[in-house]
Design a protein that fits this description.
Elements: E1 8-10, E2 13-15, E3 26-28, E4 31-33, H1 36-42, H2 48-55, H3 61-66, H4 76-94, H5 96-103, E5 109-110, H6 116-133, H7 141-156
Antiparallel strand pairs: 1-2, 1-5, 3-4
Helix pairs in contact: 1-2, 1-4, 4-5, 4-6, 4-7, 6-7
Length: 158
């Protein structure tokens, strides 16, 4: 598939809270973003002017389309997975309703609405964020460690 964005599934159940395009406001480094996708696309930029252009372009397909017109930072391929992780972590940490919905789940995360690369990585990112947000003592530390190692391996290979 080559489409972009949309909700995923947890244990076969449609889960809108894990959609990167879902409008959800959060702040990173003092800047307000409007979805995980909005943050992700803004992080591609070399200039503040382009970042602001994208930040105000929207939450989903609109910001994704607008991002096609910006110059990519040189290290984008290396950092893009961590950027998506950071955006999702902030989204769930700063939106109690989304965090609560995510923490009610425990099963496999699955996406089928993007490239194979992003279907795989979005699932890993959501599983990692979910484990990290669980109360201490309920977290699966082996899963957290393994998924962080996957991100590090990706970064090292790019």
């Amino acid at each position: 598939k080559t489409g972009m964005g949309g909700p995923g599934y947890i244990d076969g159940v449609l889960s809108v809270e894990i959609d990167n395009f879902l409008p959800s406001t959060f702040v990173i480094d003092g800047i307000e973003y409007y979805s995980a996708e909005n943050y992700f696309q803004c992080c591609k930029c070399v200039t503040e002017r382009e970042r602001e252009y994208l930040r105000h372009a929207g939450c989903g397909a609109d910001v994704w389309s607008a991002s096609r017109n910006v110059k990519l930072r040189e290290d984008w391929e290396k950092v893009k997975v961590r950027v998506m992780y950071n955006g999702n972590k902030a989204k769930f940490e700063q939106n109690a309703d989304l965090k609560k919905a995510l923490l009610k789940t425990s099963g496999r995360v699955f996406f089928d609405n993007s490239t194979l690369f992003w279907c795989k990585w979005n699932a890993k990112i959501i599983e990692l964020v979910r484990e990290e947000l669980r109360p201490e003592g309920e977290r699966d530390e082996a899963v957290i460690k393994s998924l962080h190692q996957d991100i590090l391996k990706y970064e090292a290979s790019n």
